[in-house]
Design goal:
elongated, FUSC family protein, single chain, PHBA_efflux_AaeB/fusaric-R, membrane, mainly alpha
Amino acid sequence: MIWARLKGYFETSLAGLTQPTRSDWIFSLRTVSAGLIALLVAYALKLDHPQWAMMTVFIVAQPVAGMVLAKGFYRLLGTLAGGMAAIGITTIFGTGPWVLVTVLAVWIGICTFVSSLLRNPEAYGAALAGYTAMIIGLPAFGQPHLVVDLAVARCAEIVLGIVCAGLTSRLILPKLASDAIISRLKRCILDLATYAGGAFSGGDPATLSGLHRKLVADTQTLGEMRAYARLEAPSFAPRAHPVRRTIGQLLSALSAARALHSHAAPKNAALIPVRSELQALVSELAAKPGALDDTAPWVARLDAISVKARQMPDASAAQGDDRVGTITRLTIAADFAEALRQVLRGLDALRAPVTRPARGNRQPALVVHRDYAGASRNAVRAALATLLVAAFWLTTKWSEAAGTVILVAVVSSLFAARPDPVQVAWGFFKGTLLALPFAFLVGQVALPALPGFGWFMLFVVPILVPTALAMANPRYVGVATAFAINFLAFLSPHQAMTYDPRPFFAGSASILVGILLAIGVFILVLPADPWLAANRIVRAMREDLARLCLHDRVPRRSAFESLAYDRVNQLMPLVQNAGRKGDAVLGGSVAAVTVGLEILRLRDAAQGHAIPSETALSIANFLRGLARELLFRAPGDPQTSTIAVARHYAASIAQRNGTSEMLQVAASLRIIAAAIEDFPDFFARERS
């Protein structure tokens, strides 16, 4: 029965892996080669656990060189920190078993807490520091004099694997993160052009919704790749700033296109030319091969459209129409053109970086969101799960339970901060279970009968090459990575392999039980709810907007954008697979950025001398009312007068004074009102 299931699973998996690309094959062969080199060197150095060197290669393996270097670097830091912690804890508390496991569990909780507050790859290093102390400390239980040797050996094995993986990924047909960022950014620009073309022409809502989700997910990936590229090469550091700003401009353009689609204007002489030019430009950009090879013509056209959109139409040209509504839509169209222009300039900055002049003192940005409540829950859960299983081990004296303790610590800390830790851990379990029969056949049957490194390669390479191909496929990366590292862990390759099934099955059972216990902990002990974390981020975004309304000191636009897009990036993985509800939250978060920028426009206008004092007072009153709405209105509560006030102020301002400054104030008020109307629940405080 199990073989039938294994066969069916692999057939399904292989169906999804048809036609791997040249890049996938390079990654697969490079990873397997690096692993074999690491194992050979470990044999030559006579390391106690040579399989860890080869396992490390597969643990840090990534298709992009920068990702390998980043993961390897923080794995090294985490291993060193965990090794030093193991030495200190074992030296001080090694004489008391219960105290020892308690302190180790507390250490794992602390590291899990820190990991939950950080981002990849830093978060990985923090989690690793926690369970590395357990991996080193438990084998030294009862013999603390061995802990230094165990820590040194562990670090040596890890360093060897990292060096082999890093050198091969950087020297053998490398796929660089900087190149990957440029390629993905170009694809995002073309997808944005396709989305905007459909939005401006009334395209299919389902298609537009799918493109919207894809663009949001791709911008998140761009943000992650930015950190990897900075570690890949110091020369990329000056380009990291353009990447960050370009990601924000992508989302701004997406938000503006959505707003123009949602608030299609009645036909009027002022809006039709701008909208038609934008539609023609994005349609041509999406359809023209090699359109992004030279961005200069597109930038020039977008600049001209932006200038035209920001010209205030004559009153006679808008007679019979809502003039403020027309100006509002023209403002959004100009914002789209400007954002897309900045995205194209960001692409040029990545392809031909220039030295950035030193920037002067900047006003401090608002504090970056840290989910302390979620981090605390993850820490308590990891520490408690580790301590309970360790208590079972000490009580029963079952030697193999030490492996269970380690796996519970690993899984409960490593996957704690994932949006759905149960699903991730279950994928890890499936990969581990699939590895068991292959490891038994190779390690317990084939290699004892046919020893030697040549036979080892003959049996292992045909298994690991398809596995590495699966690791290059985002759909199977979790299961495939678990298969690779646990296949090597079960196999435990040494120069002299012997047939000894009892410890093989005992150790394998302890690992599988440890993973299942960790999954049970995720389900039963302080279970994670992605929506609670998402609501905390949404609440922080509303508080940011309220702070913009009320705080005496007005931050720079770039400071607010940096903070706001950081929050959007944190929100994406929590809700992007939650259907319409998730789409509404993501749409609201991007609209919140637009609202924040319009608040800044209003604050700047109120502090200027181009508008009358009574208008400045009206703006201040409106912003105070908006802050109250953001902080106190709950979903389902009746709308306050904020939207009505915004529309009333906009109309009265336009009637009293037709200068461009006053009309721009009116447009900002209308844009804020429209955003709150589009996403009313996002801009309301959730009920406690």
